[in-house]
Design brief:
- The protein contains 13 helices and 33 strands.
- With about 725 residues, the chain is α/β, with parallel strands linked by helices.
- The protein has four domains: about 5-140, no CATH class; about 160-500, Rossmann fold, CATH 3.40.50.200; about 505-640, Sandwich (Immunoglobulin-like), CATH 2.60.40; about 640-730, Immunoglobulin-like (Sandwich), CATH 2.60.40.
- The protein has a seven-stranded parallel sheet with strand order 8-10-7-12-13-14-15, sandwiched between helices. Strands 19-25-24-21-22 form a five-stranded mixed sheet, with no helix packed on it.
- A hairpin with a 4-residue loop joins strand 2 (about 105-110) and strand 3 (about 115-120).
- Helix 7 (about 170-180) crosses helix 13, helix 8 packs parallel to helix 11 and helix 12 (about 460-470) packs across helix 13.
- About 50% of the residues are buried.
């Protein structure tokens, strides 16, 4: 038999690239993949995902998030998982890119949260990868029919001034009208078949992805930046979460939340897990607040379930709230395998009714109810179990009660929502589609409820959101949490009342006049914005609000400080605030920050936005000024010069690269030492060592010569001591 030289060379190349790593057992190739490889032609490309042996240390990464603001947790988590995945995958990816040049692999994609590589490769390449010691498992990524076909009823047109039954059923209108929460400022990702982002009820509050993502999201199935819905399921789900009723039918629970469209399924409703994992990567990289996944996989392998739980552990630690459908197998599925994956992943909060012990994770699973608050016959029921899956081996079942699922339920029968299709072929999209059933329809209702809660306090953790949703739900099933309704059907009004009682004592929100970044000309200009401060104090409570700017060099410039009184049930509002940026300010990127607390230097809440100054005007005014921050009658009080208590403020920015600033409130002249220590307790910098006068002092820590990691800034003044954790990210 003659062998072509090019074929022999290609085969040798694979051996050279992978043979040195041949210590792993061939069983890393999944049972589903083995017959596929056996039947495939050697030139055929097979879609697989390669999971690396290194798994992210959830406990370590979660501890790094302690004490950080919500937005900073997402940024730090993404930075850490990206760095660790890149190190783990570096050798494999280098080899795969070389094979791509030989036509033996293609569509190579690094997945960070999963620490996996998604690709198409020949059977020979896949078998050789399986011999690597740094590979844990290889799974077949076969497109599975996940999303059901839409009903044949087509669009239902417009019904004027209608609030759809599901929205009314969960009492969302009472939240908007009586409590004033609409989801504004919360970014919600619908992970589905894409979205009709031109829909009249969605178009004006789509995510602005800039030049890189001009169509408000990404299409992972087709690997392009246009997540247009060619099925209808995604648009319908989006409408139930945040349709705003412009076209006449109010379909959405959180009508002012911002929508990110992520497409992972094709026009037939089929897709695979790797595209879902890529979407989760995208969510954390772009600081999403809430994800809604109205889909799941049946009979998922233990390896797939492991990876989903690992990833939702990390997304949960980063502060993202995740709602997932339980599935539609209630009429025929077999327990404990009736709930679809990742709906099987544990929730972030432990309900006291949960009998079997087990770990927590990041999925709030949603079942479906009808207009009479009955559980839908199709709604998948728990329990589920993880007793055979490493490393958890928890939620034992039979014997044992397993893990209760779903966690909550929501309207999911005969649901009307936004439509994507031109059913009349007249060039006009039908605005709405009626009569849809499924836990798919229930999940975005619950996701909208999570957005409403986060609009009360963006710093709510996923565990707090889960606790509020479960505790405030209306219990229509067996007493307590059960495997039909979960904790009950969600009640957004009771949830938001509970959220107000649990919210951070003070919550400040800034809304700039223009989208970020705000541009200031070289000769100076004005930043215009609105500010709102909400509080939960039961009695009149004195406090402080202060504003500052982070300069292009990383230093902090104080702008103004006000004494205020937080009054029960009264928002402090400044609808027409303005900051005059002088021409003498240096050019570059700035961050404007407003902070609120009880004492200067210890913010309870803060918010910010970016602006850019184009050039430096040496002859321009050098003074900054602020007007219009009318926080009721007590706003424009004299600047607080001498603090009454010792306090080491929160460092900002944090995480940082390469500099961060920290403020110190000193009520009297004192010998002060401010030092920086690494995680091993070794001193790496001294910021102050000597006498300081009473007042406010700011110090800048420059980590240019240090490696990424956790550091501690310590301040000692007489008997007083303060400590702040900071994270250097390079």
């Amino acid at each position: 038999m003659r062998v072509r030289a090019s074929s022999l060379l290609a085969g040798l190349l694979v051996v050279v690239l992978f043979a040195s790593m041949s210590f792993a057992a061939p069983t890393v190739i999944s049972n589903e993949l083995q017959p596929v490889l056996a039947a495939a032609d050697e030139s055929e490309m097979v879609r697989v995902v390669v999971l690396m042996r290194d798994r992210h240390d959830v406990q370590e990464l979660s501890s790094m998030m302690d004490g950080l603001r919500a937005a900073d947790r997402k940024a730090l988590m993404w930075n850490e998982v990206s760095l660790r995945a890149d190190r783990s995958q570096e050798d494999l990816l280098d080899n795969l890119y070389r094979l791509e040049q030989q036509g033996m692999a293609t569509r190579i994609r690094s997945l960070k949260l999963a620490n996996a590589v998604d690709l198409l490769a020949t059977p020979r390449v896949i078998r050789q990868i399986a011999q690597r010691a740094d590979v844990r498992a290889i799974e077949w990524m076969n497109d599975e029919k996940v999303i059901p076909d839409p009903p044949n009823s087509g669009g239902s047109g417009n019904e004027l001034d209608e609030i759809c039954w599901g929205v009314d059923n969960v009492r969302a209108p009472e939240v908007w009208n009586d409590l004033g929460y609409t989801g504004e400022g919360i970014l919600l990702a619908i992970i589905d078949t894409g979205c009709n982002y031109e829909h009249i009820d969605l178009a004006d509050h789509m995510w602005d992805g800039g030049a890189e993502y001009p169509n408000h999201g990404y299409d992972f199935y087709n690997n392009d930046n246009n997540p247009w819905d060619d099925h209808s399921h995604g648009t319908h789900c989006a409408g139930s979460a945040l349709g705003d009723g412009t076209g006449a039918s109010q379909t959405g629970v959180a009508p002012d939340a911002t929508l990110m469209a992520l497409k992972i399924f094709n026009s037939g409703g089929s897709g695979n897990e790797a595209d879902c994992w890529a979407a989760l990567d995208f969510c954390i990289a772009n600081a999403v607040h809430v994800t809604s996944l109205s889909a799941g996989w049946t009979n998922a392998s233990n390896t797939i379930r492991e990876s989903f739980r690992d990833q939702y552990d990390l997304v949960n630690a980063a502060g993202i709230v995740n709602l997932v459908a339980s599935g539609n197998e209630g009429s025929w599925g077999t327990i404990p395998n009736q709930v679809r994956t990742p709906g099987t992943v544990p929730p972030p909060w432990h309900n006291p009714d949960q009998i079997e012990d087990g770990g927590l994770s990041g999925v709030i699973t949603v079942g479906a109810t009808d207009i009479n608050n009955n559980i839908a016959s199709f709604s998948s029921r728990g329990p589920v179990t993880w007793q055979a899956i490493s490393p958890w081996f928890d939620y034992a079942y039979s014997p044992g009660a397993g893990l209760f699922k779903p966690d909550v339920s929501a309207p999911g029968v005969n649901v009307k929502s936004c439509n994507y299709v031109d059913s009349n072929n007249n060039g006009v999209y039908d605005d709405y589609a009626d009569g849809w059933d499924g836990t798919s329809m229930a999940t975005p209702h619950a996701a909208g409820a999570a957005a409403l809660l986060l609009s009360i306090d963006e710093n709510f953790t996923p565990a707090q959101i889960d606790e509020i949703l479960e505790t405030s739900a209306v219990d229509y099933g067996s007493a307590g949490k059960d495997n039909s309704f979960g904790a009950g059907r969600i009640d957004t009004y009771e949830a938001c009342l509970m959220g107000e009682s649990m919210a951070t004592d003070v919550n400040i929100r800034l809304t700039p006049e223009y989208d970020e970044p705000y541009y200031i000309p070289g000769n100076g200009g004005v930043l215009r914005f609105a500010a709102r401060i909400r509080n939960n104090y039961a009695v009149n409570t004195p406090g402080v609000v202060w504003t500052e700017a982070i300069l292009p060099n990383g230093n902090t410039y104080p702008i103004d400080t006000y004494n205020v009184v937080y009054q029960p049930g009264v928002d402090i509002e400044a609808p027409n605030a303005a900051v005059q940026v002088p021409g003498g300010a240096p050019s570059g990127y700035y961050t404007f920050i407003a902070k609120a607390g009880l004492v200067f230097g210890n913010p309870i809440s803060m918010d910010e936005f970016e602006f850019v100054k184009f050039s430096f005007n040496a002859d321009g005014d050098s003074e900054w000024s602020m007007t219009g921050f009318e926080v009721q009658d007590n706003a424009a009080v004299e600047v607080t010069n001498v603090p009454t208590e010792f306090a080491l403020g929160a460092a900002y920015p944090n995480p940082f690269n390469p500099t961060t600033s920290i403020s110190l409130s000193l009520p009297q002249s004192e010998l002060v030492t401010v030092s920086v220590f690494n995680a091993l307790g070794q001193e790496v910098a001294t910021l102050q060592n000597g006498q300081l006068t009473a007042g406010q002092h700011t110090f800048t820590f420059d980590g240019s010569g240090l490696s990424s990691g956790v550091y501690f800034i310590s301040a000692q003044a007489g008997a007083n001591h303060g400590l702040q954790k900071v994270v250097l990210m390079k």
